[in-house]
Write a structure and sequence with these properties.
Chains A, B, C, D, E, F: It holds the Pfam family Creatininase. Chains A, B, C, D, E, F: This is Creatininase. Six copies of one chain form a homohexamer. Helices cover about 40% and strands about 10% of the residues of chain A. Chain A is α/β, with parallel strands linked by helices and about 260 residues long. Chain A has a four-stranded parallel beta sheet with strand order 2-1-3-4, sandwiched between helices. Chain A is globular. Strand 5 of chain A pairs antiparallel with strand 4 (about 140-145) of chain B.
């Protein structure tokens, strides 16, 4: 293909790619407050970089295109901090569903949602499920941190703070790598209150307090150990994990189709 | 309290309990096909038993009531197999939200959702999040298998099949323990096709194929090793884990309130 | 059948019953404030008892199963009194519609809604109508007090208060019969204000005042004449009327089908 | 007032009337097939006539205005016969709700819905209830046949067919009185099939069959006994009953207000 | 046809007209505040007159019927002034869509929306577009002032104020012509504040300020130059332009059909 | 400001800018089929370029930031051609509303919608109106071709085809200027069928035929006269007109505020 971007192609080029079994990746991000030091586009910067790099690599092995990044997500819990553009959960559900339904009409039988903002997860999962119920297609869905958990642990990414956290050491390092001029280093504090309840349950169990759904003052940890070099390493590691998952998943779908 | 059931009480009794800091547990289940051998109420039998036992135990340590079980869930992926009563994702979202909003109006500041059906998870998580955004309250949410993962692993529950799976060895054992007369043992097969893609990704990554979202023919594994004894052990283990989590979570909320 | 409960059966058992012309009854109730003396589950206790008894009797004469009781209804007018779990009218409409649509997909051609809470009536009637418009099926719908009006009059049930009223003599007698330990007799008053407008119009005409849609202080009349014995008589009379209506209605559907 | 029509007045005239305690009547009708012989505006012709006459009379005794007739209703069950303009139940609910909310904003504290089409009843009742829950106002709601049941029985209106029925003797007589040139007398048959199930239950109990929700071929009875003279008598009788109810209801609201 | 009104006909008469290629016009109006001097039904009076006259004339040349006027529109920006009955944008969208969908089911292949209230334009345009996307039909849509812009300019209608404006000279003249007894001449002022931003952009560009979306105090200009004679001239001119457009548009549809 | 992009800033930077009276521009585009020769991102390429250039220029004169481009719009009429990602009108309405509501919460009192796809116009206009009704703010909204109509006419842009048309000479020239490598010149035809009805009415009047809402075969005219040089000229002219309108509109708002 002349480009990894679905939207660089004409309708016939997209249609032929889709009907011949090619997959499409829909990357989901957000525009929301990221503490006093990071730009509100942090999730979109990170997801945009990871999506582009990982699809580019995966495209060497499997036929896959990347749809336009959705830069606005479900960020209701950040609205009160300002600087946030959010779709309500109901609106977001309909948006992701309409995107998926459009891609089915465009001929795609393999649709992959790739997510870079925690607040988008429930609706993404719901839609991925619903589309495969309704249409004779395959769907897949994951957040990048789920895909890169083990490889990030292997490089001890948690040394800068919880992974991914929110506007803490991990995300700060990533933005330092991608857009260093946008990081307000003068606003990075040395310490951050701990909330013992946040990680009280096992994985999958949620506990939330009004006003503190994403740490104190809208971020989870003081990013004082973040550096651009670490950010580059994290992003590279994530792109590797995501591209690997894309290849394995699309190939599993191809093998599965042979059994029909 | 005269009963662990919220609904056994009068309005004033409920109101006083809620306003004095008591928590309420909302248990979510389903009525859906469970293969050729299990009753369609399987998830409700299991969740009903687990919820009642775990709240009863937790109530010894923390103030907590149990709301009526919601026996219908989000089971669109099972409708085509028959025997299923499902709410669409949008309807289910509104139902869980309205229940939560009612409990806030009833005075509760600590609302816990406890889930027993995979298809309910995204909307439960979304609502638990939204309620804590909108109101000055605490919420928590988890599926029983997330809470009991480690303790079930410790007793090697996976020897009968994936945990929880769907209508496989694990759930069959549980129904044999609870309502043995409803299990059609004559319809239990010896083998079941494997789908290599289902568990292809890491935890949190979803891959789904039209018609095979919950294994082949609507169930995940042949339950030929299930016994009522194992089922009793699993249920007891789950109730222990869930009651432990309830106590820890409600106490963490209580401690958190002191910091306000 | 091994049980009158639809949900005790497997998907194939339900499917065969439905496709061979069997009917299904969906009982609708509520969890809402019932004055200072009755449990908030009053409507569900009563409807649950009436539904189970009347379907059990009707099943001797016609093929009929009972779906899980829906214990939460449309109780917006009770929320301000506390102790209430309510679905908004729009949510409730979608819930009853989704239940009906699921039963159609499960193969049922005869769907009967049986109601035990006044606030559920409009949406139940709308959905019963809509389902028969949309699908080649029969539907029926009624509240128990409409079906038992004449037989309750014959035993002078109104001697304890208006029938059914709300949390007055009639419902108090019923709960005394079913769950006497849950009645707060110490909270039953001797008198109750009269509102002359409530019954000003003929049957079918509604007049409502903000805050007094169900009598004063959330109940219609002082239940001082209620006894458990009267409650047992009322419930028995209602179950008789309802089972009679179920048999006549399902038989009329069967005769009607022969004329197609 | 210079006119009984609310909409003939300016905003200040409406506002002063409303805030001084005046009531407003919202008349609900339909545009839908009425068999092979009546115009599709039958319900609107009848409701328009009854509403205008009864409000005019009532206005002699109580302060009341009439809002514009809503000529389109909830007629999904008639769409398949053609000639029908229908709002879906959800749309209709929102329309009646928005009308009511607007009237509250316009200052009205007494809102009366008057209905002339059976399919509108559930949503009208729901909205009348909801408005009084949400706002410190009075609402009332009734269909004209409920209000005139006894007086129509007294003049034996049922001699021409069931009252009101649909497109049968009763409505045909009314249109003969109002718009005789629109009645296709050449399409009036001599006989009509009977459906024994339609009136099988007691008042309030619904039974419906796909395609026959309003009699056979979209009407309930052969109108061969209808005459314009009978129609005039029926309409006059109905207007009397409705105006009487309006006066009694609005006066009861006024008395009730004094008790606040 | 015996009448230009669709609703004067029976279902078979409507069906035959529609299926033989006849068009239907849906006129959209409003009930909303029109300053201190005009009745709240102003838009409905004007649109009703224009629609009836222009369809009557067009019917001499092309087969066309007129559906019932929708007298309530999207007037949220007027609610705060009182005297207004408004449907929210979402409700209005559904209403116009349901009307269009009904007309498609009634057999019409040519549906024309004719609008007399600015607030209705976006949703009318959206629905006209959507219907033609979804069904194999033609749709058309316009507001009367767009159709009569040139002919009103030719008679210098703007001498009384902006055309159409809101409750200014233009509309006042029209109501003086149609219902002079309803105009409160004692409430017509001599001057009116100018808002320079309102017409700052080119045609198609909107600028709005909270509370001043339709001029100051809910009207755009002092109607001191309005007369009944001018109103008659404007209305006659508009009816001519609209009927001309109807004929040209329906004939273009007929020619277009021949090319299929 | 360090950047014209709102999303490059931190939450505090955005909040201070907004609360001090700065404006925000929301650019709306689409991803949809553009005939056999243009990429599906055509509207987003053009709107993205115009928005960035015109806001950059306007920012020299008035305080204004640019929100992230919304690259998916309301393109239902293009879905059947393939290569299209569309939000349904209801979804799109909610998306634009949620974006606007978020910006209000973020502190903005001047919100400008700038549109580059015809199908987005009705909902954009509706939302711009609604936001100014609901909140004490200013809104503005326009499509770029409305703003540049006169200046494009002055340079005779219509020599290449109707302006803007769809995927015809005008848009082809623009993409040739922006992304020449994406234009499939081998797919540009020499001629294109004319549809006489499309421009039959005056400005503001819509006529649409199923399947031909945007010309034949999904485009309006053969772009054989398009060149990159013309495209650069058109884009430069548009950016000038849009930035001029932005400055005039924001200054008019500022002057208007002084009159409050």
């Amino acid at each position: 293909m002349k480009s990894i971007w679905m939207h660089d192609h004409t309708r016939e080029e997209v249609g032929e790619f889709a009907r011949s079994g090619g997959a499409v990746v829909v990357a989901l991000a957000a525009t929301e407050q990221h503490g006093p030091h990071l730009p509100v586009y942090t999730d979109s910067f990170i997801m945009g970089d990871v999506a582009e790099r990982s699809v580019r690599r995966a495209a060497d092995d499997v036929p896959v295109l990347l749809a336009p990044l959705l830069p606005i997500g479900c960020s209701e819990h950040h609205l009160s901090f300002g600087g946030t553009i959010s779709l309500s959960p109901m609106t977001y559900f309909q948006v992701v569903r309409d995107i998926g339904e459009s891609l089915v009409k465009a001929g795609f039988g393999k649709i992959v949602f790739l997510n870079g903002h925690g607040g988008n997860e429930p609706m993404m999962q719901q839609v991925a499920n619903d589309l495969a119920v309704r249409h004779p297609i395959w769907t897949a869905a994951a957040s990048y941190w789920s895909l890169a958990r083990e490889s990030l642990a292997a490089i001890r990414a948690s040394e800068v703070g919880p992974v991914p956290g929110h506007a803490g050491g991990f995300e700060t390092a990533a933005v330092m790598a991608l857009r260093p001029e946008l990081v307000r280093e003068d606003r990075i504090g040395d310490s951050h209150p701990e909330r013992d309840w946040i990680f009280a349950g096992p994985p999958g169990a949620f506990v939330g307090r009004h006003g503190e759904l994403t740490g104190c003052d809208g971020y989870t940890d003081a990013p004082k150990l973040a550096t651009a070099g670490k950010g580059r390493l994290y992003l590279e590691t994530i792109a590797d994990s995501v591209s690997g998952w894309l290849v394995r998943t699309i190939r599993a779908m191809e093998r599965g189709e042979e059994t029909l």
